Amino acid sequence: MKKYYLLLLGLLFNYLCSAQNNIICIKNAQNTQMIGKEIFFLEEQNHLDIQTILSQKYQQQFQQYDKEVFAEPSFLGITWFKITVKNQSSEQLWLEVGGSFTVHYLDFYAVDSTGKLIKTIQTGVFRPSSQKAYPVNMYWLPLQKDSSTQTFYLSLKGIYPRFFPLSVGSLAALHKNKEKQDYLIGAFVGWVLVMIFYNLFLGFTTPYRIYFLYSWVILHISLITLFVSNYFISENVWFWEYFWTWSSPTYFFEFLFFSLYLKIAKNMPKINVLMWIWVLVIAFLYPILDHIKFPFTDVFTNLYQFLCAFFYLVLLCVSIYLWTKGLKNARFYTLSWSAIVLGIVIMYLTVNGIIPFNLLTNNISLFSSQIESLMFSLALADRLGQLKKEKENAQNQNIQLIKEQNLLLEIKVEQRTHEIYQQKQKIEQLADFKNLMIEMLVHDFKSPMQKLSFYAEKNYFTDNYLFTSIQGILKMVDQFLKIQQIERNEFYLETEKVAIKKFMKAILEQEKVLFQKKNISLQSELEDSWVSIDKNLFKRVIENILFNAYKYTSANGKVFVWTKNKENYLEIGIKDNGKGISQEKLNLIFDTYYQAEQENQLGISSGLGLTFCKMVIEKHQGSIHAFSEPQKGTSIVFYLPFEAKTSVENTKIILSESEKEAVKNMIWELEKTDFFEWSSVKKIIESIPSEGNLGKWKDALKNTFFEENEADFRKLIKMASIH
C-alpha cells in the first residue's frame, strides 16, 4: 500500500509543480522533455529590450502556448519566449532550440527570482558561430545546475515562418538525440549519392538525357532538405540571407522534369501553359525580389508558402488524372509525388499539434524525399524497360515482316515461274507460226499482184495507184522483217527526245489527204510533253492505227486523235465511229495474222499491222489497248512512260578502238570501284568525254547508275573494254 501512496503523492507533486505558474519540473535529465505546452510567448514589432519586456505591462501580455511544438506563420517582428524551470535532477540542464535555420538572431537571458539578469547569450546565423554556447549545428543554451527555480527569456528574430521545437535535458540526453539525427542524415546523404550516381550512370549509358535532369533535381532538393534540417554544407550567411534566391529555382527543374516525363505539353497543353506561369512566379519572380532586397511583408511570405503547396498538389492531381487516362508512366510519378505531399501533410499535422512530434515526424521530409527519389528512379527504370520491350516488339515485328516478305517472295517466284512457262508456250506458238509465215505472205501478195495484172490488162491503172500498191507491198515486207527481229531480240531502238504535240501534228497533216478521199473528219486534241521514242518506228505505229481507222470508218465519218499527260506517263489514243468489233474478237486483234472481217479497200493487208504496233509500243516500255462497241466505233489507246527505260540490249552503241583507248583508265577505275559507291562512280562518269558514241555510252552508264541497274552497268563496262 505504501507504494500506491507514494505514487499518488508523486502525481500530486507533479501536478502542483506544473500548475504553479507553469513551472517546468525536470526530475530526470537523462531524457529530453518537450516543453512547448509549458512556455509563454509574446510577439512584438518594436524590437523591445529585455528590461522593457520585464516590466509589468509586457509581462501581462505573455500568452501560454497550447501545442507541443511552437509553429506560427511568418512574422517580421520578434518572438519572445518565457520559460520557468525547476531542476529536480542532479545534472546541468540545457535548452535545445530546434528548427534553427529560421533563427537569424537569438538572444538568451537568465533571470533570478528577484528579476535580476544573471546571464546573457547572443547568437544566431547572422552572428559569429563562436558566440554559440555549445558548438553544434543547433542552439543549445545552458540552464541552471542547482535545484533552484529560474526564469529564462528567448528573443528570436527571422523572416521565415517560425518552427521552434523546444526541449530540455542534460547534455548527454541532447547528444543522444543528436546522434540519432546524425545517423538519419548520414543515411539520407548516402541514399542521395546512390540515387544521383545511379541516374548519372543511366544518363551516360542510355540515350535518354532526362536522367541527367533528374540527377540535378535530386541534388537540388537534397541540399534544401539538409539546409532546413540544420545540416548544411556551408555556414556562409549568404545562404540564409538569400534563401529564396538559390532554393526557389528547384521548382523550375521539378516541373521541367514533370513536363518532359509525362509529356504535359502534348497530353494537357492548357494545364502546361498555366503551370509554367505558376512556376515562373515561384522560381524566378520571388528570387528576383529577394535578390533586390524587396521589403517582404508577412502576406508575401505566407503567399509563397501557399503557392508552393498548391504547386505540389496540382502536380499530384495531374499525374493521377493521366494515370486514370491510361498513361502508364504516371503511376510511378503519382506514387512518388504522393510521398512528397504526404510528407507535407504530416508536417502540417505535426506543427499544429494534431499528431505527436517525434524523430519520425520531425524528419518526415527526409523520409518522403528518399521515397520520392526511389519511386522516380524506379519510374525511369520502368520507362527504360518499356522502351526495351517496345524495341524487342519492333524487332519481332520486323522478323515477322521478313518472314511474310519471304513467303510473299516465294509466291511471286511461283507466279513468275508460271508466267515464264506461259511465255515459253507463247514462244512455241510463235515458232509454229513461222512455218506458215512465208505461205501467208505469198497469199497476201496474190491480191495486189492480181489487181495490178487486171488493171494492166484493162489499162485502168495510173502511176499514182501503182506506186501506192508497190509501197504497200514494201511496207508489209518491212513489217514482217521488223517483227522477226523483235522476236529474235535482234532489234535496237534508236531513241531521242521528241515534243509529242509537234510530232503528232506533222503525221496528221500528212494523213489528211487520205481521209479527205472519204470525207472523214480528222480531229485532234493534243497536249505537249517530251518523250523518248524511236521516231521512225513510232511514226509507222501511228500511221498503221490511222490507216485501220480510215479503213473501218464509213464515208463522212469521224476520227479523233488525242494525247493527254498523266502523272507518270503519256496517253495517246485514236478513236473512230466505224462499225466496231465484237467483244469476242476484240481480244484477238493484236494476234499475228488476225484481220477483222471487213472489206479491204486497197487489198494491201498482212494481218501484221497491230501486231507490229504492239511490239514497238512494248519495246518502248509502254502498253497498248483496244476498246470497241459494235456500231459505235473502236478506240486504240496506248501509254508511254515520259522517260522510257531502255536496257543495254535496246541501245545500239559501238565504240571504236580509239574511243576504247580514250576511256581505258576510266574503265579500269570503274571495274575496281563498287557500284554502290555512288559518289566515286559519279565522279568517274562525269570525266568521260561527251562527243559521239562515247557521249551515248556515257549517257547509258548514267541511266544504269540512276536506275541502280548493276547488271547493265557491268555490260556497258565490258562493251568498252579492250580485249
Strand proportion: 15-25%
Helical coverage, percent range: 55-70%
Task: Please count the beta strands (DSSP E, at least 2 residues each).
Answer: 20
Number of helices: 24
Largest sheet: 7 strands, mixed
Mean pLDDT: 77
Query: CA-to-CA gap between the ends?
Result: 132 Å
Radius of gyration, taken over Cα atoms and rounded to an integer in Å: 52 Å
* Class per helix and strand makeup: alpha+beta
* Unreliable runs: 1-20, 596-607
Rough outline: rod-shaped
Quick summary:
With 723 residues, the protein is of the alpha+beta class. It has 24 helices and 20 strands.
Write the layout of secondary structure elements.
Layout (H helix, E strand, L loop, with lengths): L1 H18 L4 E3 L6 E2 L5 E5 L5 H4 L2 H4 L3 E2 L5 E3 L5 E10 L6 E4 L7 E7 L5 E7 L15 E4 L6 E9 L4 E3 L1 E4 L1 H35 L4 H19 L9 H4 L1 H5 L2 H13 L1 H4 L1 H23 L6 H27 L4 H23 L7 H4 L1 H95 L4 H25 L8 E4 H17 L4 E6 L3 E4 L1 H17 L6 E8 L3 E8 L6 H4 L22 H11 L3 E7 L3 E9 L15 H6 L1 H9 L5 H9 L5 H15 L3 H10 L4
Parallel strand pairs: 1-6, 15-17
Antiparallel strand pairs: 2-13, 3-4, 3-6, 5-12, 6-11, 7-10, 7-13, 8-9, 8-11, 14-16, 17-18, 18-20, 19-20
Give structural notes:
- By secondary structure, the chain is α+β, with helices and mostly antiparallel strands.
- 55% of the residues lie in helices and 15% in strands.
- It has 24 helices and 20 strands.
- The strands form five sheets. Strands 1, 3, 4, 6, 8, 9 and 11 form a seven-stranded mixed beta sheet that branches. Strands 15-17-18-20-19 form a five-stranded mixed beta sheet.
- A hairpin with a 3-residue loop joins strand 19 (623-629) and strand 20 (633-641).
- Helix 5 (210-228) packs antiparallel against helix 14 (364-458) and helix 23 (692-706) packs antiparallel against helix 24.
- The longest helix is centred in the middle third of the chain and has 95 residues, at 364-458.
- 26% of the residues are buried.
- Residues 1-20 and 596-607 have low confidence and may be disordered.
